[in-house]
Write a structure and sequence with these properties.
Shape: globular
Largest sheet: 5 strands, parallel
Number of helices: 4
Structural class: alpha/beta
Order of helices and strands: EEHEHEHHE
Distance between the termini: 38 Å
CATH topology: Rossmann fold
Number of strands: 5
């Protein structure tokens, strides 16, 4: 079994998602008192203390040079950013946490519902 990872949830993700990731040390941006930090500063701070950053910011990978950061990034794309829709991505999140890749953004997509 892989060792537990230190995971940071972006401030726009419901903190209750952390309950669905047992076995990992999950914190939120507000818990770290990093709310309002710009993406580059946030990634730099996160990389010093965390293994993985989870966000719903689809532009992050285009706006930041991720290979410069020693943190893996998971970008969640669900129907909405509501907890119920994000929970559907938990199996994909767990899979991605088995082998996180620092400096790379992995996009995890949920099924679109009409």
């Amino acid at each position: 079994m892989p060792p537990p990872l230190k995971v940071l949830l972006d401030e726009c993700i419901d903190r209750r998602l952390a309950r669905s990731l047992p076995g990992h040390a999950v914190k939120t941006v507000p818990q770290m008192h990093w709310s309002g930090l710009k993406d580059g500063a946030l990634l730099a701070a996160a990389a010093r203390q965390f293994d993985v950053f989870i966000t719903v910011d689809r532009n992050l990978a285009f706006q930041q040079h991720l290979p410069a950061f020693t943190i893996a990034v998971l970008v969640l794309q669900a129907r909405t950013n509501r907890l119920a829709d994000l929970l559907a991505l938990v199996p994909s999140i767990e899979q991605a946490l088995r082998e996180p890749v620092a400096g790379v953004a992995i996009t995890l997509r949920g099924e679109a519902r009409e």
